[in-house]
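Title: Comparing notes on inverse folding

I've been comparing how different people in this forum approach sequence design from structure. To keep things fair, I'm posting one structure and asking everyone to reply with a full sequence. Here's the target:
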């Protein structure tokens, strides 16, 4: 059952003007011109984002879209397209979704809070899924745009909606409330963290509570709303607490039993119990929220316990991993519905490291659609995303296989049959998306295809990388370009995957340190212009063959390049001139600019693409005068050069902290480095917005009881203060965990607690004092993440974050996440 509205209906609902020349049945709301699957049935909203959505109308038109919501008619003539003109495009999207929601009379759970919204939403879905037909936000689509797109999915077959709402500034919740129109409210964990968009935690809470203003029932934690009792009186509330007993669900006892979390509570004057398969603090609280919600909605305590015990971890993330036979694997093996399939296919489509794109898909359950319509839609989506090989698993896919039109296709009745035949498929040098409903146990496929890793991994969150990119973009004037620094293996984060993400999100330039790094990017399909900071004359041929642009910092380099260009008959080749304004590493100094200009004026072989310099202390207030001096030297130099050349060049001097602290020195482009990876000395840590991208983790290989009298490790340097225990973990200085971290200098997070190293760090392993924490072999250990940050490690051993990041050796596998 797909929703359709005629374009005329839409025009009325959103109160638009403009001529209608199409006769479309609109079923898809589109906000991103790169993600078109159903052009004829799409209505494109030209939203003002970081770029004006009106710029993408032409792209969407070329892809076949003919219906648009805009705030002004575009200049280009597109006679067969309808443009609905409104004052505000986002409001129109929200109005349409709110109108759509009103057509249905179903129970809708509205979820908000500071943390846990997505997990609680997904868990409630798992818990109530057996008897309800549920519609929910895909992933964590909980924003001003994500919520309307989520609500748009409601159709006649659903009898429960579960929608989360996230806000970042006052005034936003009223809008989301009007779209979701929740009948039941659920408040998740409320943190006290300072939030940029709000004056105070109270203001934030007041704003969140607006989601519940028309709910007939509200489920919340007693302590979270102590000051709000009066306003809550008007509705039915289900209150839980772990401290006060005069509530609906009083959790009075909590213990760990063989790795699970066991809780007892008083409910309707009886004692009830619940076993949770997770024991970390956040999961336990989320589980209690779900427990309370189930009871509030009339589930029996026995049912609730039974289902909560079988809750599965929620992974909202797509993992990009190295596979066998040079494949890349996108692992999304835990859920399958049509919305998340589309998101995953977009991610697959975005990958360029292999020519060939493969999808392994299981039957999709509970879509609310007729099988026929469902698989028609899936087949259409698969074709639109240009999948080269399709591997279908399940009897329904087999039954509807004629709908699919993909160059290579294979169908299997079940996962076991596919695994048996896997070798015959010769999967090689392709990107493979694995996407399956839970019951198909596609993790078995993923295990077979993913390269076995040494258990120390560096996880890179590509979404965070993007949000950091946007954090800096927001600080630039319109038109200022971004050069992203991906030198040194993208500061250790993995060149190809990071570069690909940056290319997809349209940065203007990349920069690498050496020619080889640039070639590696070209070989994996990166087409952005790339500057090479240290071009080696011996590699000029490869540099030019790969369209890499050299930074020229001396007369020697310039000479050699010009000679090379003459011999090879290369004309007008783009180069970048480096000015030494005070770093005194490389670059032309002030007195060299004039002779440089003389050479440039008569030179047909090169074209100066940009002139740049580098700030030595853009983050450090005590050197601000020096920075001003650098900027002034740079200005003089580029003016001289531009005058001599007679054409404008791109000028750039700001690195990460330059972007943050020197807005007047952005010129035409900025060079964003470590900030992308979430580190910027000039941004206070409390300020939300910039987040760490990388998490380094390993596992415990052995736990030993240890008497205080014993010594631990090489040279007998370590010992415990009292009898206790140590854990040996699988990371050493060969992985980049430097020897300096030994003997208590470094700390790692073991099951949530920071514990010190003990003894010397060895090549492949090191030991931790775990006397005070519960830990067993195989447990995960975190070296750095958003809790203990890279900056903290740098402080521990007296170095800088750059060195910590780039030291992580290539032996440590990189795993990429994308939400
Ligand atoms: C590495 C580098 C940058 C980036 O510096 P960050 O402090 O990481 O932003 C900018 N410019 C040049 C020339 C660099 O070598």
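Reply #1:
Here's my take.
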């Amino acid at each position: 059952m797909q929703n359709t509205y005629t374009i005329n209906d839409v025009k009325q609902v959103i109160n638009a003007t403009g001529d209608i020349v199409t006769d479309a049945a609109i079923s898809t709301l589109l906000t991103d011109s790169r993600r078109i699957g159903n052009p004829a049935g799409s209505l494109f909203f030209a939203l003002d984002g970081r770029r004006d959505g009106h710029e993408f109308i032409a792209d969407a038109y070329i892809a076949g879209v003919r219906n648009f919501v805009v705030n002004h008619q575009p200049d280009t003539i597109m006679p067969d397209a309808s443009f609905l003109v409104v004052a505000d495009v986002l409001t129109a999207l929200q109005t349409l979704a709110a109108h759509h929601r009103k057509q249905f009379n179903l129970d809708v759970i509205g979820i908000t809070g500071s943390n846990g919204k997505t997990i609680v939403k997904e868990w409630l879905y798992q818990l109530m899924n057996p008897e309800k037909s549920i519609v929910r936000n895909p992933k964590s689509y909980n924003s001003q745009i994500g919520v309307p797109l989520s609500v748009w999915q409601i159709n006649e077959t659903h009898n429960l909606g579960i929608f989360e709402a996230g806000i970042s500034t006052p005034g936003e919740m009223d809008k989301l409330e009007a779209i979701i129109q929740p009948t039941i409210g659920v408040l998740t964990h409320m943190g006290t963290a300072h939030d940029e968009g709000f004056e105070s935690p109270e203001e934030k809470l007041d704003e969140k509570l607006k989601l519940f203003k028309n709910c007939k029932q509200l489920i919340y934690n007693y302590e979270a709303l102590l000051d709000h009792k009066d306003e809550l009186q008007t509705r039915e509330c289900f209150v839980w607490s772990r401290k006060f007993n005069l509530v609906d669900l009083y959790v009075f006892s909590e213990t760990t039993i063989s790795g699970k979390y066991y809780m007892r509570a008083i409910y309707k004057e009886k004692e009830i119990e619940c076993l949770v398969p997770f024991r970390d603090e956040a999961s336990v609280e989320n589980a209690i929220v779900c427990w309370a919600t189930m009871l509030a909605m009339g589930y029996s305590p026995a049912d609730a316990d039974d289902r909560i015990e079988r809750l599965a971890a929620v992974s909202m993330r797509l993992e990009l991993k190295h596979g066998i036979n040079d494949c890349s694997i996108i692992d999304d093996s835990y859920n399958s519905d049509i919305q998340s399939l589309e998101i995953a296919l977009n991610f697959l489509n975005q990958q360029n490291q292999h020519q060939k794109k493969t999808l392994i898909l299981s039957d999709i359950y509970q879509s609310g659609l007729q099988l026929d319509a469902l698989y028609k839609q899936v087949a259409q989506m698969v074709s639109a995303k240009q999948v080269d090989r399709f591997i279908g698993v399940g009897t329904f896919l087999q039954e509807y296989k004629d709908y699919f039109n993909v160059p290579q296709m294979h169908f299997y009745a079940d996962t076991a049959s596919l695994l048996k035949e896997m070798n015959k498929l010769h999967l090689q040098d392709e990107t493979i998306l694995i996407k399956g409903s839970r019951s198909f146990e596609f993790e078995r496929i993923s295990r077979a295809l993913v390269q076995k890793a040494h258990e120390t991994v560096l996880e890179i969150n590509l979404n965070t990388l993007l949000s950091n990119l946007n954090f800096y973009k927001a600080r630039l004037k319109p038109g200022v370009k971004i050069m992203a620094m991906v030198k040194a293996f993208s500061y250790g984060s993995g060149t190809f995957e990071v570069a690909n993400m940056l290319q997809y999100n349209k940065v203007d330039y990349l920069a690498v340190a050496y020619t080889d790094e640039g070639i590696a990017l070209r070989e994996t399909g990166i087409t952005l212009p790339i500057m090479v900071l240290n071009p080696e004359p011996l590699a000029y041929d490869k540099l030019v063959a790969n369209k890499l642009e050299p930074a020229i910092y001396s007369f020697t380099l310039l000479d050699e390049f010009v000679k090379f260009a003459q011999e090879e008959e290369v004309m007008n080749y783009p180069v970048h001139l480096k000015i030494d304004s005070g770093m005194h590493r490389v670059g032309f100094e002030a007195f060299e600019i004039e002779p440089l200009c003389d050479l440039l004026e008569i030179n047909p072989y090169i074209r100066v693409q940009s002139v740049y310099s580098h700030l030595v202390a853009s983050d450090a207030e005590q050197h601000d005068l020096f920075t001003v001096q650098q900027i002034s030297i740079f200005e003089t130099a580029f003016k001289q050069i531009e005058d001599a050349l007679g054409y404008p060049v791109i000028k750039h001097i700001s690195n990460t902290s330059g972007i943050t602290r020197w807005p007047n020195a952005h010129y035409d482009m900025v060079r964003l480095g470590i900030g992308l990876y979430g580190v910027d000395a000039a941004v206070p840590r409390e300020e939300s917005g910039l987040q760490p991208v990388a998490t380094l983790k390993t596992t415990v290989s052995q736990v030993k009881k240890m008497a205080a009298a014993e010594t631990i490790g090489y040279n007998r340097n370590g010992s415990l203060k009292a009898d206790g225990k140590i854990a040996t973990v699988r990371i050493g200085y060969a992985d980049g965990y430097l020897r300096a971290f030994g003997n208590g200098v470094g700390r790692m997070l073991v099951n949530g607690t920071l514990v010190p190293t003990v003894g010397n760090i060895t090549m492949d392993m090191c030991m931790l004092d775990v006397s005070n924490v519960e830990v067993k072999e195989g447990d995960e250990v975190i070296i750095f993440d958003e809790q203990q940050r890279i900056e903290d490690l740098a402080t521990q051993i007296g170095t800088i974050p750059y060195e910590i990041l780039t030291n992580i050796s290539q032996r440590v596998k990189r795993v990429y996440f994308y939400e």
